[in-house]
Amino acid sequence: MRIRKGDTVQVINGKDKGKTGEVLKTLPIQNRVIVQGINLRTRHLKPTQEGEAGRIVNEEASLHASNVMLYSKAKKVASRVEVFVDKDGIKKRRLKKTGELID
Question: Quick one: pLDDT band at residue 1, thresholds 50, 70, 90?
Fold first, then answer.
């Protein structure tokens, strides 16, 4: 998976198409990501203790990783990710369109 926690991504497919947000969590086994403020789901919670009221909570649900692309805030463009080996032999990530380093 080329997307990591803390990356800024743009949704390219689905009901939230075009929105951007930060990756809160990655689920590499399922190939899914959770993005802040994207794909919100409403949960109705029952009261757990006596005297407590029930409540409605909005939570982010996961998106498939193929439905998001890394986003450059500086250039305001979404791009694919290229993994390359540095002169020092270290693997790094950069955007294909702009050549901007991500790490």
Answer: confident
Q: 81 is written with which tokens?
A: 């990710």
Question: Is 80 exceeded by the pLDDT of residue 103?
Answer: no
Q: Which two tokens stand for residue 52?
A: 């407590």
8 A C-beta contact, residue 91 and residue 85: yes
Q: Is residue 23 part of a domain?
A: yes
Residue 77 CB neighbour total at 10 angstroms: 15
Task: Give the domain extent around 15.
Answer: 8-73
DSSP secondary structure string for all residues of 22-65: EEEEEETTTTEEEETTSSEEEEEEPPSSTTPPPEEEEEEPPEEG
Whether the model pTM is above 0.85: yes
Task: Output the CA–CA distances (angstroms, integers) from residue 17 to 1, 13, 21, 56, 79, in the order listed.
Answer: 21, 5, 12, 25, 15
Query: Is residue 89 assigned to a domain?
Result: no
